Amino acid sequence: MVESTVNAANAGKDGNPDIATLANGTTVVAYQSEFGATGGVFEVRFQLIDAQGSPIGSPVGLGQQSSVTGGGAVVSGLSDGSFVVSWIASGNVLAQRFDANGVSLSPIITVDDNVNIKALAIEPLSGGGFVISALHGVASGGGSAAVLYNFATNAATTFTRDIESSSQFGGSGNGIKTLELPTGYFSVWAAANDEIKGEFHEDGSGNETIFFDETFGANGGIDGTVAAAELTDGSVVVAWAQYGNIRMLMPEVSDEGSFLPGEIANANRIDETTQPDILALSNGNFVIVWAAQDPATGDYNIKGQTFDSDGVPVGGGFLVNDVTDGPQVKPGVSEISNGGIRVVWQTNPSGNLDVAFKDLTQAEITAGTYTIVEDSPTVADVEITGDLVQGEVLGSGPPPTDANGIAEVTYSWYRNAMPLGQSLSGEIIAGANGATYTPVQADVGETLGVLVSVTDDLGNVSTFRDIADDVIANQNDPVQGEVSIDGAEDGVTVGETLRANPSLSDPDGLGVLSYTWSRDGIALAGTNSADYAVTGADLGAQLSVTVSYVDDFGATERVTSDMAGPVGSAGPTEDADLIIGGTGNDSLTSLGGADTIYAYEGDDTIDGGAGADRMIGGPGSDTYHVDDTNDFVGESRNWAGHDLVYASIDFRMGRAHIEDLYLTGPALLGAGNGLANEIRGTVGDNILDGGKNNDTLIGGAGNDTYLVRAPGDTVIEAAGRGVADTVKAFRAYKLTDNVERLYLQTLRNDAGEGIAGVNGIGNDLDNTIVGNPFDNVIVGREGRDTLKGQAGADTFVFDRAYGPANVDRIIDFNVNVPDEGDILKMKGSVFGGQSAGVLDSQLFTAGTQANDSNDRFIFDAASGNLWFDADGAGGASQILIATFEQNAVVSFDDILIY
């Protein structure tokens, strides 16, 4: 059968249907209808439909109402074949009874005039009569209670309000269902706070048993619709919608006839579901129908599933509606004579609300139009584990499991936790949202709880909780803060009064403070005040103070300050003073005597004055004034800073961690250390030795001597300051500007052999360059240079333009030992473009002038002069390029062109 429309054509809205099957096989559909030119006028109507699905007559209206609320009308067939319709209108609960042909058998009965009725249901009684049940607004607390209105006979127009739930529920629960059972009444409803409540009332006794109290906590996803049915075997089925699932409960019946909670199972989870209705079939099975949202379109369809009497699905799920345009919602279901079912629902084709129905056969409701996805329950063993002590890690049990998969698990830890349904009450601990939690001071003495919320991959949410079985015990917390000493910031001297300044906090509580002062770590008896007067007994010692107290949990806590001192004299004298600086930038000056000065932190200036003083700067960039050969400067490699010594005496840095040395007054010698030093001379003839590292040596106005040892040493000599400045080089070296002399020093390896490669290069002054006893390369460059190779096979290089201002004097060319190996190395581009290699003999002549056009180099042994003639015996003049002493002899093979 295809779906059909129940209501007559109507420009207004028709919806909120309910259905019942009468004893003669006819079904009656009650629904809400809007009509009128402008809408807003409603009435409840019903339509009779025969067993074959054909309408019997036209819809019957029950009178116009200014409003019809409460979800429309409810209808039920009675034991004598008649039926009753009930609805809520204008704040009243109304009812009216009709025969099987739709003829009125009673006037409209006012059942209740409470304006806060929220839901209705009708249950026919097997012995005649019926019960209307409602969620009833009550005066106290503004909540709701389940109320039953008992009509003793089918024809009764009066009733007794003889059963009312004693439980009060705030909020807006809006679904209820009551069943007549052999031993009494069973009511189930959707209460506030997402609770499903169930009560069993023994017939005639007035007693009640809350056998089912399922609480899901705030935002638990209950949509307010609840359905129930009694099966042919006397068992009961309850269904409701939660988190897009149809959840199903089958309570158990005890031997005494009372009800016990049954297992909760998910009947369906293929898409977002809501608004279930249950029908008990005559064959012992039952059917649940519901509205299911299509995740692709967002529209709702009417779907269903058949179950056997044990709640096991029979076949697959089935789709009811044919029209899928617009949402299909609010289904109701009733059995028809052929063993099939008739489903009624609210449809919305093209935006026009109508009431539709469709018949399905027994085969169609077990055919399996689509597959039901069963939802396995979430399993979680939530238990607080670990020692209930501050600072100890607490666990919440193993991770939850779910056969459908876990989408999300959230944890909330509570302080002062108490049970609240399936949830907890108390203070939610901010930030405590993990599977573990470490109690803090605020938790001491409190009971902790954990609430675990699990969302499975089907969107179902389950909550689990546990509460610790004891309060959290305290763990002693460390003291926070420090104790400082006021008055010690700039050093400590005899006669001062120091004051302890505690800045402390303790999560366990801060007790009364006590004080004990110590000298060099040894407690001083009787020093129990925050103040301490420094005496002569403290001279040279370090002072500290210990602050102690007993916290709120009985633990003794102690905090000791940093050392202050050492204690110094009150001021400088002509005797041996001890002067102590502070942590700032101090200027410490003493008088006569062998003084000891400790500057400590800061960029300090220290002057010991006359006498052999011991000066220790401490961390920072310190400046020292040294005026005695027995003055001692103390600096450590562990102290940051860049230190400077002004020395009016000859000064060697030694192993002290000093960076710079400036000589003053009569001081002549300045020697560095292993650091990269800057050493400055005076107006005298200074000797400046940087030492091993890459140093900067700066001379003054005198004839200074520089000892160059490291490859990165730099010599700085200003113009016009001295005429005989000398570099003694312990490596190959090129003279810097304004330095006149270069002496290459003798270097040997561990075997005593000379180290090669110690060469010297001049500058544009008239230099004196002296080699060592080994093979040297000596380059005079510009100027009238005096060159002395000493022993070894030395090479004298001529690489600059020759002329009267550039005539070099060579002292010892091959005169130290026979066949010494000295050579002259001439740059070909300077000397006529000669070919590289040993000079061609045709280009050399002995005498005082060229003899032919080939002669270029002319040597006169008698005078020791060496000339160069650019054109031989031509017209150009020969130019003197070098003079040789000690009867030196120069031949063509002593000259190498490069």
TrEMBL record:
<dbReference type="InterPro" id="IPR001343">
    <property type="entry name" value="Hemolysn_Ca-bd"/>
</dbReference>
<keyword id="KW-0964">Secreted</keyword>
<dbReference type="InterPro" id="IPR018511">
    <property type="entry name" value="Hemolysin-typ_Ca-bd_CS"/>
</dbReference>
<dbReference type="GO" id="GO:0005509">
    <property type="term" value="F:calcium ion binding"/>
</dbReference>
<dbReference type="Pfam" id="PF00353">
    <property type="entry name" value="HemolysinCabind"/>
</dbReference>
<dbReference type="InterPro" id="IPR011049">
    <property type="entry name" value="Serralysin-like_metalloprot_C"/>
</dbReference>
<protein>
    <submittedName>
        <fullName>Uncharacterized protein</fullName>
    </submittedName>
</protein>
<dbReference type="GO" id="GO:0005576">
    <property type="term" value="C:extracellular region"/>
</dbReference>
<dbReference type="InterPro" id="IPR050557">
    <property type="entry name" value="RTX_toxin/Mannuronan_C5-epim"/>
</dbReference>
